[in-house]
Design a protein that fits this description.
Blueprint lengths: L1 H21 L11 H9 L4 H4 L5 E10 L7 H7 L12 H17 L5 H7 L7 H5 L8 E2 L2 E6 L3 E7 L4 E11 L2 E11 L4 H32 L13
Antiparallel strand pairs: 1-6, 2-3, 3-4, 4-5, 5-6
Helix pairs in contact: 1-5
Length: about 240
Amino acid sequence: MRLTKAIVIGGTGLLAGYLLLVRPRLKGTPVADREVLDGYMELPLKAHSFLRGIPIHSLDPAELRGGRPDMNVVEVYRATGLEDLGEVQLGPATKILFSLRSAIGRAMGWDEVPELVSSISYLSRLTPEEKSRSLVPPGEVRGISRVLYCFKQEMLLEIINKTVHCFWCIAVENRPSGYLLYNAVYVKNLNWRTPIYMTLVSPVLKWVIYPAIGRSIKKNWETTFPQRDALPPLKGI
């Protein structure tokens, strides 16, 4: 009990110190530049209507040169290694933060919340027809996420715990020289903890985690489709 309390108090103090001393020195960046955001919003995705009213927390594009013709989002998802984010290379400081978050989550009972999942999940908002044509079974667990649906051009996953309700949309745009992959994260205000939690973790997510995932995506894609076999660079990005 004392150890658990020490972890919680120490972790909370560390995060509070980060919020008060480090974060004010960091300059905020927009979710995405206007061209990237416009390009994403112009894609015919169900996510635009399905998640209407929920703000985009981050939007990161990845230029993928080459590849096979007419790949669907599942094939791109696998080729980029997104189905195994445990292999993403992170620095020791980031791993410590992850471990700290996991320890606090276990101590506070934030993460194992089946009743909350069943009551607020967007899975029930899908029609029977949408569930039947999903390329991945709706509700399938992928790491800390659950698949809501997966169509040819987009996959939407959901993460629910006591601190946040967020959605991860992976969308693929077919380009003449390859593909453009969008990773969009939406965050819904679940309760009073959400804005505090997001304020604490956003800098680490945007400047450490997401860039690391982006590098991993490029590396895995180029391993699967060596650049000597790739087509000329994409234009207009």
